[in-house]
Amino acid sequence: MLSIHRTRHIIAVAVAACAFTACVESPTEPPDGELWEDSTFDFTGDLIAFESERDGNKEIYVMIPDGSDGINITNHPAADGDAAWSPDGEKIAFASTRDGNTEIYVMDVDGSNVIRLTNDPAIDRFPSWSPDGSRLAFSTDRDGDSEIYLMDADGSNPVRLTNDLEVDSEPEWLADGSRIVFLSTRSGSGDVWIMNSDGSGLVNLTNDPSSFDSSPGTVLVPFGASERISFVSDRAGGNQDIYTMNVDGSDPVRVTTEPGSDFDSSWAPDGGRLVFDSNRTGNWDIYTIETAGTNTVRLTTHWADDESPAWRP
Prior knowledge:
- The chain has 1 helix and 24 strands.
- Mean pLDDT is 88; it is low at 1-36.
- The strands form 6 sheets. The chain has a 4-stranded antiparallel beta sheet with strand order 3-2-1-24, with no helix packed on it.
- The protein has one helix spanning 7-11, and strands at 48-52, 59-63, 70-72, 80-85, 91-96, 103-108, 115-116, 124-129, 135-140, 147-152, 159-160, 168-173, 179-184, 191-196, 203-204, 213-217, 228-236, 239-246, 253-254, 262-267, 273-278, 285-290, 297-298, 306-311.
- 2% of the residues lie in helices and 39% in strands.
């Protein structure tokens, strides 16, 4: 059975970093590439949360979408990551090892009022809010392998949704709350699947045995005439890139095309851009790109790895 820590570690360990050739913009950053951290930071506007080890261990930061201002909001000796915004943008669910094993917590957008939601010896990760904010989907190995569960937003009433010996992980809700997309290896490779919010109606959306498809991304607020799902795939000659597709798996479109690995896409609230992480320069940094694959902008340039961005709804 395949084990999972982050999808990146399954499929990209052997991928060599390639030279950065895209035409991108880089933001102006403070001396030594550090983010500004002071009491004047504005938490009310458009923000991107992400993980970074720039303070010596994995923490959650938020920054404005041009990358020019940001702050560490967890600032804890333990590892913090998997940031997921609530639909109203006022809270962030996340995973942390601060109590001895990996559990799911929730906090206000400024890092205050931290509340532990799960309490199990297993590894609980990848929280994802339902569009109405009443529930969280998450992945856990509390039954011996990685499965997807639901719980109420206060951590009560956990319910198991998937039941398979292979990996089920990385759940993301569709905007109407009726279905959840997720990574599964039950078909023998990584694919993006979809199911009803009660675990029924399982459908393999990507269903490509020659590729590893993972890390689905959705928006909590519908936009435009149709809804798209972003995902990561190595179908283009082994290079990990960001794609989008319709909710039925049709019309896959490749968004990123640069050498190196691109991961962890998250949609802008209006559906016009994606934020993602990439090692195309030899280091993991955060970028944005239009969904048509144009106008790539590099947001972070720190020597530490910046990963797993999530755009505020």
